[in-house]
Design brief:
The complex is a heterodimer of chains A (346) and B (296). Chain A is mainly α and 346 residues long. Chain A has 14 helices and no strands. Chain A has two domains: 49 residues, no CATH class; 284 residues, MetI-like fold (Orthogonal Bundle), CATH 1.10.3720. Classes of the chains: A mainly alpha (346), B mainly alpha (296).
Chain lengths: 346, 296
């Protein structure tokens, strides 16, 4: 009898540790456990026994490269495998300083390499952007738009912070307008109205127009994130730089911007992830990126009624890519924030 | 000397912007003449001659384009306000559950935020529409005479919500709810730990403690984030076109396709959106001011 009460007391102690204090808690926990368990078993049951994964397995190529010519499909595949390889080396390996430098240079080269492999050109057959699609198109849209939007965003943030009145007003107007308009309106503008803005006879293809729209949209959001970073750089840093005799340009370049950018990394990561998700809007406006190609696969009468399989599969891909981006950003942030220490010491 | 230099830079910048605008306007002017489209708003009063599946204002295809756009605008407003209420409820509950002492509740809240925030909204909307509603084979009765869910939509007391509207509401609320939950969690974390311990040691129950002590202190940290999430919700509601709900963007799209007046249609879309933004930010400003006043 004594042992049993001891056991019960021990169990109660354990229960309290995981957050069960009284009978109501126990009851709620029990119901939740049953619910979670039932949902999980149902879901796993569906995944392994009821779902018809043919719609995924038979179109695997389409999801990744879209309608890219079969004979040349090694090019997007090569690009994506290089990205995956690079992500894993960055995430898993502990690297010394020189290797880190090397990896950052590799990341910068990814975009030109992607354009070269997908578009072709010197030594390899050129392929029109009309044939681009799937995950490779999603990734290249995201990467190029971010790399264009980042410098524009920095300039806009500096413009909004500057004490030149006209520049301040114009940049503020641009940022506020962009931030109050839905993205799909900007994309619509890019696809349907830019041809009207261009001189006669000049034409830009749809992928570049999409990149243009994404860049002008995201740059406004990026500039606000960077402005947050700029504001959190302590004022005495700027004063110290002035005392040392640096001019305005030098202060921004060497003192303020490096710190502001490091502070803004988490917010910028969120923008990158948001942009990657938002490239799916191009499916509405007729590009066959990851979601667009899935919509055309689902329109195929052969695969009618397999929406759930396709959506679960797409959610998994998007989730994985977003998570990898978040992890990479965390790694980069940790690397840089070591050099960032506001507290003075002797 | 320094003054003149900065003035030169500013006016040069202004000059470049103005030249750029003139160039663009010139191009547009030329292109409009070339394609024979012209720039006017007279077409607004011609009959629209397309039908809209859903409208709160009376509407028939013989009404004018202007009226069709207004109907689309009110449809947008309807979605935004219903989704706004539901997303707030979902977000606040998930945010508070994230702070619960029960590990399973915490886990569920975290899992919800993790899944929803890392997948595109458009994908979620398509999921709710095609999987959540259109593929229901047997109607589901939740409380037999009251709520009935089928592939025809949701039927509450004989009031029918179409599958387009319902999936849009669910998708937007669940998506925005995850973001609001993060903001609420951040706000609750900003309340000093001593406050939590203080109400617990006074013997006040968790529900009253949250309602009267913690949340009032967390609100100033929560409200600004909440406003920006509501504005995001309004912007995201334009994805309605993907599930075929006639919101302001979908109607503008149809109007532009029918009339070919893309620039005018786009300008009207932006104006419509400006008003939606103004309404939301004014209401939030009102709340903000009142709550902060009560606190003081």
């Amino acid at each position: 009898m004594k042992i049993i009460t001891k056991d019960i007391k021990f169990l109660l102690f354990k229960a309290r540790k995981i957050g069960i204090n009284n009978k109501t808690d126990l009851f709620i926990t029990f119901i939740l456990l049953v619910g979670v368990f039932a949902t999980l078993t149902n879901f796993l049951n569906w995944i392994f026994f009821h779902a018809n994964w043919e719609v995924v397995s038979r179109n695997l190529n389409l999801y990744i490269i879209g309608t890219y010519p079969k004979a040349l499909s090694w090019r997007p595949f090569l690009w994506i495998s290089i990205i995956i390889l690079l992500s894993f080396t960055t995430l898993l390996k502990k690297l010394n300083y020189i290797k880190k430098r090397f990896i950052y240079i590799c990341w910068l080269l990814i975009i030109p390499l992607g354009i070269y492999l997908l578009a072709g050109g010197i030594n390899i057959i050129p392929i029109s952007t009309n044939f681009w699609g799937g995950l490779s198109l999603t990734l290249i849209l995201t990467f190029i738009s971010i790399i264009i939007a980042l410098p524009i965003g920095i300039l806009l943030a500096l413009g909004r912070q500057s004490n030149l009145l006209i520049i301040k007003k114009i940049t503020s107007l641009y940022i506020d307008c962009m931030r109050s308009v839905p993205l799909i309106a900007i994309l619509f503008f890019g696809q349907l109205l830019t041809p009207l803005l261009l001189p006669v006879g000049m034409e830009i293809n749809r992928v570049i127009r999409a990149i243009f729209s994404f860049s002008i949209f995201v740059s406004a959001y990026i500039s606000e994130d960077i402005r947050g970073g700029l504001q959190s750089v302590p004022q005495n840093q700027i004063e110290a730089a002035k005392v040392l005799g640096l001019n305005k340009y030098q202060i921004n370049k060497f003192i303020v911007l490096p710190q502001a950018l490091i502070i803004a990394i988490p917010a910028l990561t969120n923008q990158a992830i948001g942009l990657l998700q938002n490239t799916s809007l191009m499916a509405i406006l007729g590009l066959v990126e990851l979601l667009g190609i899935s919509r055309s696969i689902l329109a195929n009468p052969q695969f009618i009624g397999s929406h759930l399989e396709v959506y679960v599969w797409l959610a998994l891909i998007y989730w994985l890519v977003c998570t990898i981006i978040a992890l990479l950003a965390k790694k980069i942030e940790r690397h840089f924030s070591k050099s960032l220490n506001f507290q003075g010491d002797l | 000397m320094r003054f003149t230099k900065s003035y030169i830079i500013q006016y040069l910048f202004l000059l470049i912007i103005i030249l750029f605008l003139i160039l663009i306007i010139n191009n547009v002017h030329f292109n409009l003449i070339r394609t024979g489209l012209g720039f006017d708003f007279a077409w607004l009063f011609r009959p629209a001659s397309f039908s809209l599946a859903e409208h709160i204002l009376p509407y028939s295809p013989s009404n004018s384009f202007a009226w069709a756009l207004l109907v689309g605008w009110t449809n947008s407003l309807r979605v935004i306000f219903v989704a706004l209420i539901f997303s707030t409820i979902i977000g606040i509950s998930a945010g508070i559950l994230g702070k619960s002492h029960n590990y399973i509740l915490k886990f569920i809240s975290r899992l919800y935020i993790l899944i929803i925030r890392q997948t595109p909204l458009l994908l979620q909307l398509l999921f709710w529409y095609f999987v959540g509603f259109l593929s229901i084979r047997n109607p589901v009765n939740i409380i037999v005479p009251i709520i009935n869910i089928s592939n025809q939509g949701i039927n509450i007391f004989g009031y029918i919500l179409t599958p387009e509207f319902s999936s849009l509401i669910i998708g937007l609320s669940v998506f925005t709810g995850a973001y609001i939950a993060e903001i609420v969690r951040g706000g609750l974390n900003s309340v000093p730990k001593g406050q939590w311990e203080a109400y617990k040691s006074l013997g006040i129950s968790d529900s009253i403690g949250l309602k009267d002590i913690i949340i009032p202190q967390a609100l100033p940290a929560i409200l600004p984030g909440l406003t920006s999430q509501y504005l995001n919700l309004a912007k995201n509601s334009t994805l309605a076109i993907a599930v075929g709900y006639a919101d302001i963007y979908a109607v503008s799209d149809t109007v532009i396709n029918q009339t070919g007046k893309s620039i005018e249609g786009f300008i009207l879309l932006l104006i419509g959106f400006l008003f939606i933004n103004l309404i939301i930010s004014n209401i939030m400003e009102f709340f903000n001011r009142n709550i902060l006043k009560n606190k003081a």
